[in-house]
Amino acid sequence: MSLARREFLKAAAAVAATPYFFSSQKSLAAQAAASPAERPLVGAIGLGGRGSSVAAQASKFGDVVAVCDVDTKRLEAAKAKKEFGAGKSEAFVDYRKLLDRKDIDVVTIGTTDHWHTKIALDAMRAGKDVYCEKPLTLTIDEGKILSKAVKETGRVFQVGTQQRSENNNQFLIAAALCRQGRIGKINRVTCAIGGVKPSGKLKKETPPPELNWDMWLGQAPMVDYIKQRAHYEFRWWYEYSGGKMTDWGAHHVDIAQWALGMDDTGPTSFEVIAAEHAVPFAKGWPTVDNEYNVALTFHVRCQTADGVEINIRDKATDLGFDNGILFEGDKGKFFVNRGKLTGAPVDDLKANPIDESVLVALRHGKPLGGHMENFFACIKDRGLPASDVASHHRAMTTCHLANIAMRLNRSLKWDPAAEQIVGDDEANSFQKREQRKGYEIV
What we know:
The protein is an alpha/beta fold. It folds into two domains: about 5-165, NAD(P)-binding Rossmann-like Domain (Rossmann fold), CATH 3.40.50; about 165-350 and about 390-430, 2-Layer Sandwich (Dihydrodipicolinate Reductase, domain 2), CATH 3.30.360. The chain has 16 helices and 17 strands. Strand 1, helix 3 and strand 2 (about 65-70) form a beta-alpha-beta unit. The chain is globular. The chain starts with a helix and ends in a 14-residue tail after the last helix.
């Protein structure tokens, strides 16, 4: 019996009062991290709230020796943190200079969404393993490029969709319930991911001196600075992200497709039931530049080739919830979100627990443990992380297609094998974006 196998059995044996909560045994990755000789050197790129949190998690398994952000206030604040060397880490505004350091083994990427792909590509090509926050891509084409680059470079790449590893393993158990047929043939999945409040008219200003606005924009069009375009609120602009469809869809749609065994495929049709934007659109592009422009409320119905209906909604209060995933089959249904896992199939786990082999298979043979822990274990054995690029690309493709359908206000047909929209050249053109000179993704 392998050591990894024994570790998994230890965790599985620790099931307590509830049938799906596993104890956190000290994993292989945590044991290895305790030895200074085996601790990789880490560079942290993007140091906002989430970026700093991710880098701090990485510091448990490796030594953060370099930090990078285009906002020098954030950069200096991060550099001073104990997790990042308490002032000893090297600081960069330009991530490329961080990647030039040959001694850095791993990078974490917690930048704005529209920078993820380019930095990740450059990092892999510089020989670094990568942990990148979700959503991994701004466009479908970026996902294709990243999937190819992972194969070409052989780098270990974990996407920050931590629901596959954390939250008391509730989403892992949800996926296993579906894979084992516990609710029979699945006919409908509903993902409620929240909406966006309109911003109203926003003020154009001079960029603050600590922010390199040109580099922050990167591939996106050069526009006047608006405070609400940058930092956290970048999520509500199509130029840099995809609204709740990609922000929370990257989590819940990912789990839905994981549970349905769709890691290498996707739905075949997308129907817009409802979509509300605060600004007018012309040929899929917002015509107002000083208000949030992503969908505020929405409902897109997707259909798979084998007849499963996947609904992506801002909320599903008619079904009794406003965030989470409802799986419905011909033999039952259950609900999961970060706070609970409920339904008759869940109650049945007390008498009829999930076979451990299903859980192991869903995590590519890795034992239970946190998401960052899983990443560093894969760095050590060059295995496939819990949230790999190929499967995340497929989940994000679904989210991007839903956004394209809403922006053009029409239904789309998708060929998952060819990765092309069928019979709609204009919609297909949205698979990629025009990029500013000097920031192109190739």
